[in-house]
Amino acid sequence: MISKKKLHYGWVVVASAFVITFIMSGVNFSYGVLFLPIVNEFGWSRGLASAVMLVCGTAYATTLPFTGILADRFGYKWVLAVSVGFLSLGLILSSQIHELWQLYVFTGLLVGLSISASFAIPVALVSVWFTRRQGLAVGVATLGISLGTATIPLLISCLITSIDWRSAVLLSGIVVAVFCIPATLLMRSPPRSISIPDSSDGKDPTSTQQSATSDLEIGLTVSQAVRTGQFWMLFAMFLLFLSSLGLVMLHLVPYAVDSGIDSVHAAILITLIGIFGIVGRLSSGVLSDRIGIKPIMLFCTVLLGLNTAFIALCSEPWAFYVFASIYGITYSGFVTQMVRITRSVFGGKALGSVFSALMVSDGIGLGIGPWVAGSIFDATGDYQIPYLAAAAGLIIATAFVIIIRPATAGT
């Protein structure tokens, strides 16, 4: 009699995380294609319109540590469900804005409250379900970010062209509610002894279970982690990277339009970032299982810095497509390793809360990077200075990648 292999529930969690990151990340990365239509309709400066990201980032950074603690204590799916509700409500209300304060409250505050769980919690949960295939599992889960980035902003751009930006935002809010809420209900924490899948390769599953259980029971708590130099080194590394990411995802399309590319073709740049991000996420996940996390992150930060300097100095239309292709591979490769390097430095005991505390850097970077870039554009009339500053920050981040090491309490 042929025995049927039971599906490891970790892969259900991976699939759910994929759906959540696909839709929520795709929608969150769409403000870049909405930016100019909103600015042109209301006549706001780019600095003022970019400040919505400062509100969004502040809300994100403020709530994120509590999100991780609540998820570790009470469960992941309810935290995710509340976050999905904030995003859906924020988008629906954003489609009706007429004043600048409404943009800040609906698009900034409500959407910012949703971001705290849309990436950190699903990816951290996937990470603790796996040990031997962790790189592949995280890579597949975060693949949703690349696919969402590749498809949703372009679809929204086409809707803006064919209908209007308000209808595109309203439809986005409905889609978030219909698809993301069911996905959150499938998320759950692993048992203390994890049955790692794919044991058909001949390895003893018992030893793998013991390894997974041990990893979940060792490491630093979030209060111990924040008192180490390693935490703040990792925080600075993430901040520099995420500030540049916020700059690119909001201002690349306006930069391209200013350089002579029409709005739909400029939105294709975000699609290219998403498509090549698929290559970056999957390849970095698999390669990091073979050669380690730090070599992948080192490669990504160096190339990100050089590529960002390139687009600052060469704004020809063809250069944007080269930039977007390289950026997709390298930024997604870095993102895939963020939760893994956090686990390697601090262990898996309180990974959700430690990683969420580190991702406060995302909220700060998400707000400051785009806002500063928009303000500099208002003052100078171009984007060269912001992109060169982002390139310099990425080179500094490379140094942190080189010197980071596992932490112990008090170090």
Describe the structure.
By secondary structure, this protein is mainly alpha-helical. It has one domain (9-189, 204-403): MFS general substrate transporter like domains (Growth Hormone, Chain: A, Up-down Bundle). The protein is built from 17 helices and no strands. It has helices at residues 9-28, 31-42, 46-74, 76-94, 100-118, 120-129, 134-162, 165-184, 205-217, 222-225, 229-258, 263-291, 293-313, 317-346, 351-358, 360-380, 384-403. Helix 12 (263-291) packs antiparallel against helix 13 (293-313). The longest helix is centred in the middle third of the chain and has 30 residues, at 229-258. Mean pLDDT is 83; it is low at 193-213.
List the main descriptive attributes of the protein structure presented here.
Growth Hormone, Chain: A; mainly alpha; 411 residues; 17 helices; single chain; 81% helix
Task: Summarize this entry quickly.
By secondary structure, this protein is mostly helical. The chain has a single domain (9-189, 204-403), classed as MFS general substrate transporter like domains (Growth Hormone, Chain: A, Up-down Bundle). It contains 17 helices and no strands.
